[in-house]
Design a protein that fits this description.
Number of domains: 2
CATH superfamily of the largest domain: Zn peptidases
CATH class of the largest domain: Alpha Beta
Number of strands: 24
Number of helices: 12
Structural class: alpha+beta
CATH architecture of the largest domain: 3-Layer(aba) Sandwich
Largest sheet: 9 strands, antiparallel
Helix content: 25-40%
Length: 477
């Protein structure tokens, strides 16, 4: 009997993973508020007779005994994160703090109802692990299931994992890969920059107010999608406002998160005549192929009481326009993989200040330093100070025995070749490797498209193959 037959066939496997995904995705789980999601996972494990441990950061660990006869196999850690990037469609009313994700199956994809991101990153990998364990059909060795928190805001949960939770294990398989058919053996480091300057305003002049909006962008994951040529509405509006004769800016806001490419931005500007949008319309033409649904609108707005002072406007727009966004360098060791990039993810007034969030990614430290120095000089010139946090890279190693095992399992189960690669995203092995230097680590995942956006979706057809990769690896060690 084949492994797939033991698991009940493709339809049974797919339905089991989807149903489990729905169950663990029901509690709201933005970064830092994963408690209810952890409770849901713990409840599923309790139903299997398994206990869990939780640390002060909310990370969850479950120790799973080996199947009879497999007690001597090396211990495998299966690891994923519980939080999600909560992108919301403008005007949708979806509140990530209180509202669940509405999961929809349509046209061969798992997706949300369009009001929010899906959170398949990383709950779809978690769901596959949990369903396989619940099936009771696997002859696996000893396992540890590790579910971490706050991954999307700098791998913060993984940083708090006790080395004792990893001690003695031989292998760690991270389930946060985005591309089925890849074995990931290295990832980029990340640098989160939160720039802030005091908001300086003056009374608004006696002139008409206009609201200029860019919406409908694809947005996406700032690592996985940064090379797709999509527009950054914040950058586009900042360029327009900087060149608008006599325009006085009252507000400019857009984006959702450090690590999400902005899908929208809007500005309120005062000027005597209708704003000339032709420069922006010409700029949008360059993005039509990569970002076909971008919409530009301009309508009269209620005149605000205050606008940015001339100096603050000049400095803020110059800073926004000078920040790097997009691919900075490619990775020579892995053709087609981005080596360094920057994302201008969010901007807007926060209390008595104006905040701008940027995210730098680099596989090599010297490239991150180049981008960081460029931004630091720009911030000093225009009066913006930054709070910095980040995490190291996971240096890629082609001689990875876990990746070799995954490649063998994939060929046996699907007849296809598993590609070895590095990725331009942050993965938790970059932090966990220092806690257990002898641990052999790799990452895989189901296909996820347009993560961190309201268009996030996962093809249903690949879920059974991903389950076979996981299950085969669990049995082959």
């Amino acid at each position: 009997m084949t492994l797939l037959e033991r698991l009940g066939g493709r339809e049974t496997v797919t339905r089991g993973i989807v149903d489990t995904f729905r169950a663990i995705s029901r509690p709201p789980h933005p970064s830092g508020q994963e408690g209810a999601a952890a409770d849901a996972v713990a409840a599923l494990l309790s139903g299997l007779g398994l206990g869990t441990e939780r640390d002060g950061a909310g990370n969850l660990l479950c120790r799973v005994p080996a199947a009879p006869g497999r007690e001597g196999a090396p211990e495998l850690v299966l690891q994923g994160h519980l939080d999600m990037v909560c992108a919301a469609a403008p005007g949708s009313g979806w509140n990530p703090q209180t509202d669940p994700v509405t999961v929809v199956e349509a046209d061969g994809f798992l997706r949300s109802d369009g009001r929010s991101s899906l959170g398949a990153d990383n709950n779809l990998g978690n769901a596959a692990v949990l369903w396989l364990l619940a099936s009771g059909k696997l002859r696996h060795g000893p396992l540890r299931l590790l579910f971490t928190t706050a991954e999307e805001v700098g791998l913060e949960g993984a940083k708090q994992v006790s080395p004792a939770w990893l001690a003695g294990a031989g292998y760690l398989l991270n389930t946060d890969g985005f591309h089925l058919g890849l074995a990931i053996v290295g990832s980029a480091g990340g640098r989160r920059e939160r720039w802030r300057a005091p908001l300086d305003t003056v009374p608004a002049p006696d002139a008409p107010a206009w609201r200029i909006t860019l919406s409908g962008g694809l947005g996406g994951h700032s690592g996985d999608d940064i090379n797709r040529g999509r527009a950054n509405p914040i950058k586009l509006l900042a360029a327009l406002l900087a060149g608008l004769p006599g325009g006085r800016t009252a507000s400019l806001e857009g984006g959702a998160a450090f690590n999400a490419i902005p899908a929208w931005a809007q500005a309120v500007v005062l000027c005597r005549d209708t704003p000339d949008l032709s420069p922006l319309e010409e700029a949008l033409a360059d993005y039509r192929a990569a970002d076909p649904n971008l919409r530009l609108a301009c309508a009269p707005a209620e005149r605000p009481e205050a606008v940015w002072s001339p100096a603050f406007q000049a400095h803020t727009l110059a800073f926004l326009n000078g920040l790097y966004h997009g691919v900075y360098a490619m990775e020579p060791a892995f053709p087609g993989v981005v080596g360094a990039s920057a994302n201008l993810g969010r901007a807007g007034a926060e209390g008595d200040g104006y905040e701008i969030c940027t995210f730098l990614r680099a596989g090599r430290g010297e490239l991150e330093e180049e981008l960081a120095a460029r931004h630091a000089a720009l911030g000093a010139e225009h009066g913006f100070a930054a709070r910095i946090s980040g995490y190291p890279g996971w240096p890629a190693d082609r001689d990875n025995p876990l990746a070799s095992l995954l490649e063998r399992v994939w060929r046996e189960q699907t007849g296809r070749t598993l590609e070895l690669t590095a990725v331009h995203v942050g993965l938790e092995p970059s932090v966990l490797r220092a806690k257990a230097p002898g641990l052999v680590m790799a990452s895989t995942g189901p296909d996820i498209l347009d993560a961190h956006s309201v268009d996030e979706r996962a093809p249903l057809a690949g879920l059974a193959d991903y389950a076979l990769l996981l299950a085969g690896a669990m049995e082959a060690l």
